[in-house]
Amino acid sequence: MTNRQTKGEQARAWDCIKNARLQDRPQTRDYIRAMADEFFEVHGDRTLGEDAAMVTGVGRIGGQVFTIIGHQKGHTIEERKLCNFGMPHPSGYRKSMRAIKQAEKFNRPILCLVDTPGAFCGVDAEERGQGNVIAEHLSCIASAKVPVISVVIGEGGSGGALAIAIADKLLMMENTYFSVITPEGCASILFKDASKAEIAAESLALTPADLIRLGMADGIIREDDDFSLDNMKGTTDRLKAAVLGALAELSGRNPEALVQARYQRSLNMKGF
Amino acid sequence: MELFKPIPAAAGTNQEFSMPSILTCDDCGKQSLAALVHLNGSTCPFCGGLFRMPARARIAMLADADTFIETDETLTSTDPLKFPKYSEKLKKAKADSGLTDAIVTGTCAIEGYPAALAVMDSYFMMGSMGAVVGEKICDLAEIALAKRLPLIIVSASGGARMQEGMISLLQMTRTTMAVNKLGDAGLLYVSVLTHPTTGGVTASFAMQGDVILAEPKALIGFAGPRVITQTVNEELPDAFQKAEYLYQQGMIDGIVKRGELKAALAQILALHADNREASHDQ
């Protein structure tokens, strides 16, 4: 990992962006391998196809069965192409909604792992209703009658990330970001100069510490200095403990109270 | 034709956010004075082509006379992130539009049917959604819930407001949950999409209506055409992302001419009024 902040110092926005985008940074499948004792993956949206940018399945973490949903970017160039660089098509979100419905049916909590530059912006995605499907997905997860815990493990790119980041607890890995728009996009639109992305990144308040300050995230998971694909255990042990701890906090509530609390939580984030 | 020369934006101001005094028709290319256009239902006096409609003009068109009671009329952004140049842009948008933000909300009657009505205004910072737009929609949904009113939202928006960062993105969550709550209570929500409706508004409440209508030729999409062109590096077909195209793709229920929108809404309200009363009596 490069550009890591020294301990105790708050991460600069641009460092979060760069680290979150590192190609060899652990991704959804790596987290599942590191944290789950077993995992059964489900595929296909039953309408249009299978989207590798979205991984869904059922896994056991610390004895607890979760529905696991996550974006997958891919490490090798072949995998990255297959995963469309982590930018889901509508079928990815439809597959994810299937997983959410099954989580409700079988009464198991949902763990979401967020890591996308954004939902795919292409002609075919628009033709198949990318806007409609994200709207439907937001509605689906907002009303899910089981606990939802989301963890930003890399890039939190706008609406495509938000679709699986509406949660009862939102955690962020230390070297990640969550933003309404890419800093490059923001700089080119507002400052008419994409090279001012670093300034835009500082202004957008997108670091884990910013999200805690804004009341949107509940915790930051510290990453070991040598956190990498080959050395995940120390860091993922902390994440596992945080996820199971969050679940323990949520699991006493009845389904209606859970959805109501999720609504109240969002109402409280006024932004005034 | 000296009269029709575009008026240059004042030095140091951003023209894209100002309320223009001269408008050029996309259909026939002719220019007209904005004041005349808006007196004429925001349509082109030459060919009837549609211009973007200011929120107050839309409310005057849809609500029965003297029935609109505005809610949250003074709510205004606090520039929560102290984003560069945002407070200046807000100040200018307010002065130009006479609005406090990009949406006007309230209760009214439409052909005698009571309704909660929210109308977005694309002349205010391109109708972008920040905390104020989200809050006003959530408040209106709560009022609709308490009074058991159907909700109508007329959208016109470029999407989330970048200058409020994640607070803007979060409004997608908040509005979704507010609309969900109405649905759980068996209340009707009609979404009307007008030119343009894109980004975080499309990907949240605008596409969550029980009934979704659109105005002719309105641009409706998740990503804007420029972003898509940059992503896929190809020319987009003419009809792409137009209301007519979305209708063909099965994404919306119907396309309604501006002059017929009030009657169409009244019919939908009438068809759902019996259910509303029945569920209310139980």
Q: Explain this structure to me?
A:
The complex is a heterodimer of chains A (272) and B (282). Helix content of chain A is 42%, strand content 18%. By secondary structure, chain A is α/β, with parallel strands linked by helices. Chain A has a single domain, classed as 2-enoyl-CoA Hydratase, Chain A, domain 1 (Alpha-Beta Complex). In chain A, strands 1, 2, 3, 4, 5, 6, 7 and 8 form an 8-stranded mixed sheet that branches. In chain A, strand 2 and strand 3 form a beta hairpin. In chain A, helix 4 runs parallel beside helix 6 (130-142) and helix 8 (183-190) crosses helix 9 (197-203). The radius of gyration of chain A is 18 Å and the shape is globular. The model of chain A is unreliable at 1-8 (pLDDT under 50). Chain B is of the alpha/beta class. In chain B, 36% of the residues lie in helices and 17% in strands. Chain B is built from 9 helices and 9 strands. Chain B has a 7-stranded mixed sheet with strand order 3-4-5-6-7-8-9, with helices on both faces. A two-stranded antiparallel ribbon of chain B has the order 1-2. In chain B, strand 4 and strand 5 form a beta hairpin. Chain B is globular. At the A-B interface, helix 5, helix 6, helix 7, helix 8 and helix 12 of A face helix 4, helix 5, helix 6 and helix 7 of B.
Oligomer: heterodimer
What spatial form of chain A do the alpha-carbon principal axes imply?
A: globular
Poorly predicted regions of chain A? 1-8
Instruction: Kindly state the number of beta strands of chain B.
Output: 9
Terminal CA distance of chain B reads 66 Å
Counting structural domains of chain B, the number is: 2
What letter string, H or E per element, gives the SSE order of chain A?
Answer: HHEEEHHEHHEHEEHHHEHH
Q: What's the helix count of chain B?
A: 9
What topology, given as strand order, has the largest sheet of chain B? 3-4-5-6-7-8-9
CATH architecture of the largest domain in chain B: Alpha-Beta Complex
Question: Can you identify the CATH superfamily of chain A?
Answer: 2-enoyl-CoA Hydratase, Chain A, domain 1
